[in-house]
Predict the structure.
Amino acid sequence: MFNHVVFGDSQKMTELEDESIDLVVCSPPYYNSELDFPEFYPSYRVFLETMRNHVHETKRVLREGRVVAYVVDDVLIDGERFPIVADMTRILSEAFRYRDRIVWQKPDGFVRISRRSGVFIQHPYPLYFYNDNLHETILIFQKNRFDYKSVPREVMDASKIDLKEFQDGKWFQSIWRIVNVLPNSNGAQKGTAAFPEELVRRLVKLYSFAGDVVLDPFAGGCTTLKVASCLGRNAVGYELDLGLLETVKKRLADQWDPAGHPVDFKLTIREDAKNMRIRLQERIEARRRQLSCSRRSSRGKRGTGKTLDGMMPDTEFTS
């Protein structure tokens, strides 16, 4: 199944045969983050079990010796920090061998001062400090070991990486400094946190060959599929949220491979697809308005303008 987007739950990728995928690049949902699906998972335990199901289904469809790259980060929800990087490392280790870890560092100017550091500015004393997050983690795991002799010489040559680009861009370092994509505030993409095309481009070029099949089981706006097809790879994506249908259609329109041939993507909508993002965002906006009204009422009764006084940081934005 090449160049295909399936709207449905990637815990069951029934459209894919065993060992039919050459590379997985994805960014799973941040647990109940405002940038993804706030209040979607009933508990952190349910979130981790869902991720475990995804990982083991990914193992089924991945070819021997091939790589998965998961872009993940810890998240702060209502004052509690959840160790997603550590837990995803443990879950991935159940299915694959650990190969590498890359830190994606974002420029200072692209992360605003959050409530976390804002509290310290008002209270510059010990134990008030919480840092603003400027990075995410790319976990690289592999399904056993790769047989380099299995790749034909002509495929190797067609997949050769430009060493000047490799060296000038410092791809060889464990820290990649790449500008992040700011969350979109319009339409169905409101609240999405897409990763940058440059990050995907590096992963696809470093861990797959020309003509390979690249999978993103959390496709979102289909950044992975767009980049993979431009690099001469075939691409498959799964996305649970049917609210992104029009976004995906626009994103994957007018795609061309390196030889100048058009790339046409097939769209399939399964019965388990859901209209999630818009409904959840509307609920969160209603809750925010209610909390805002309550806080204004409370401040009026206290007669103080110290809006952050005594308030600990409770939300972290990772993009």
